[in-house]
Specification:
- It is built from two helices and 23 strands.
- By secondary structure, it is mainly beta.
- Among the domains are: about 30-45 and about 210-280, conserved putative lor/sdh protein from methanococcus maripaludis s2 fold (Beta Barrel); about 60-130, OB fold (Dihydrolipoamide Acetyltransferase, E2P) (Beta Barrel), CATH 2.40.50.100.
- The strands form six sheets. It has a six-stranded antiparallel β-barrel. The chain has a four-stranded antiparallel β-sheet with strand order 4-11-9-6, with no helix packed on it.
- The radius of gyration is 29 Å and the shape is elongated.
Length: about 280
Amino acid sequence: MLRSGRSRRALPIFVLLSACLAQTAAADRHSPVPITIGHARHTVMPRVAVAIGEILPGAEPFVAAPASGTVTSYSIVPGEFVARGAAVATLQPAQGPAVVVRAPLSATVTGLSVAVGGQVTAGTPLAGLRGHGIRRACMPFAAAHASHFTVGETVYLHSPLNPRDRLLARIVAIKPSAQSGVRYVYTDLPPLPGFTPGSPVRADLILAERTVISVPSESVVLRPPGTVVFVVRDHRVHEQVVTVQIRRRHRVAVSGLSAGTRVAASALDQLHNGTRVRLPADS
C-alpha cells in the first residue's frame, strides 16, 4: 500500500513533466520565426524638459538681448523688414567674444530700444517688431529647469494636430509665476496651421546630453513581466525585462542591457521566451 501511495503521488509530477517535454518538443518542431536583428549601442541622447502651454491671441514681439553686455552696432533700421535668423545687432559681453543677435521671426522693425553703446542685461528688448498674425506661446516650466534657460535659447514647439513635426523658435522672455516653483517661458511665432490662438502647444527644451545604451524602438514591447526586449542567443530569443529611460523616434534608451547585445527587431508578436528564430544570415 505504501508503494502504491508513492506511485499515486508521483503520477501528477510525471504527467506534468511529460507535458512540459511534449510542449518543448512541439515548439522545436515549429519552423523558426524569421526576424531582423538590432543592436544595443552607446548613443548620445538629450535630456529634455517638457511643458504644455498655450498659444496667445496676439503679441508685440521684440528682439531681446541674449546676455548682459554693451550694444556695439545694429544691422537694421526702423521700418526695415528683417527675415527670421537675420542679424539684428552685435552685443559685446563683459567677457568672451561678441554675440550676434538674430531676429526670432520675419517681421518689420518698429524701432530700436537701446542706443549703440548702451548697457543691457539678458532679456532687455533691443528692437520692436511688427508682423501680421504673429502669435506668442506661453509655457509653464518647473523653476528648477527654467533657471537654466536663457533668452535666445532654442525651444521646439509641437502642435497636437501634428505632434511629429516641430517648429524651432527662440525664447523671448522668462517671467516668474504666482504659482510657486513655476516660471513662464515665452516665444513668438508666425501664423502657422495648428498654432492657432487658444490651442495647446508642447514645448521641448534640451537641458543636457548624455551617453546611454539604446535599442531600436521596434525592439521594445510590453509583455506581462513588463517592458521587454528579446535577446538573441544561439538561434533562440530570451525575454529580457528593461527599464525605459528616454524615448526618441527611432531609438529607445534602456537600462538592463550591455552595448553589443543582439535583440530582435521584427516579428515580436510571434516571439515568446525560448522561441527558435531564423536570422537574415541563415537565409
